[in-house]
Design goal:
This protein is mainly alpha-helical and 99 residues long. It has five helices and two strands. A two-stranded antiparallel sheet has the order 1-2. Strand 1 (87-89) and strand 2 (95-97) form a beta hairpin. The chain is elongated, with a radius of gyration of 14 Å.
Length: 99
């Protein structure tokens, strides 16, 4: 019913970015802050989290919602990225990029 009224099907983050006319490849990415060799070795999912955190600090639930990934996946990714010292967590529970 919603689709008949103009709603759009969203299956991934890129769908939302396209609808909002946000060019995710140039407006928010800044992989130069992470050494190129380290950035290239990150998984696609890790890069999604990093790109979201480039814009602003986010709570876990916001990362799950905006990334389109499962909460269990986001939890694992956050742990891995913290261990790599790429992200960290504020006292208020928001995650942010270290670099």
């Amino acid at each position: 019913m919603l689709l008949k009224h103009g709603a759009k099907l969203v299956t991934q983050v890129q769908d939302v970015l396209e609808e909002l006319k946000i060019n995710s490849k140039s407006e928010y990415r800044n992989p130069k802050k992470i050494p190129n060799s380290n950035y290239q070795s990150l998984s696609k999912e890790e890069k999604i989290i990093i790109e979201l955190l480039t814009r602003e600090s986010l709570h876990f639930d916001d990362l799950v919602r905006e990334s389109g990934l499962l909460s269990s996946t986001v939890g694992s990714l956050l742990t891995e990225l913290e261990m790599k010292n790429i992200i960290n967590k504020h006292n208020d529970g928001k995650y942010y990029r270290v670099n």
